[in-house]
Amino acid sequence: MEPVYRGLGRCVCCFWLAVAFDIVGLLVLLLGVFVNVFFYDLLIYAGAIVIFLSLIWWVFWYSGNIEVPPAELEDDVGLLKKDRGALGGLSGRCGASPVA
After folding, report:
1. Are 24 and 16 spatial neighbours (Cβ–Cβ below 8 Å)?
2. Other C-beta atoms lying within 10 Å of the C-beta of residue 28
3. Where are the domains of the chain?
4. Helix or strand (DSSP H, E) at 46
């Protein structure tokens, strides 16, 4: 029996890394906006870059949680479907009709 994933799914580490990057990036960006320092522009750009880099973790988390049924994976990994005969798989390919 396959494990059941609830809540955050399989890639919990990628989720928390994405959230951490978002929080750190937002804090750095807001420091650059509201704190009166001479390098405020560096903080604004650095915060925006960190928020942008969090997109990598969001994509990893999302793509790691995509579920594909095993029936759809059979063609991709070279497994034969069990209900087909020896020539049964040839009739559905390339628009060919079965020979009578």
Report:
1. no
2. 20
3. 12-62
4. helix 40-64
> Which amino acid does the sequence have at 5?
Y
Q: Which residues contact 73 (CB under 8 A, 6 or more apart)?
A: 79
The pLDDT tens digits for 65-95 are 988 777 776 666 666 666 555 555 555 555 5
Question: What DSSP designation does 73 have?
Answer: H
Q: Distances in Å between the alpha carbon of 35 and those of 27, 29, 79? A: 11, 10, 61
Q: How many CB atoms lie within 10 A of CB 17?
A: 18
In tens, the pLDDT along 18-28 reads 999 999 999 99
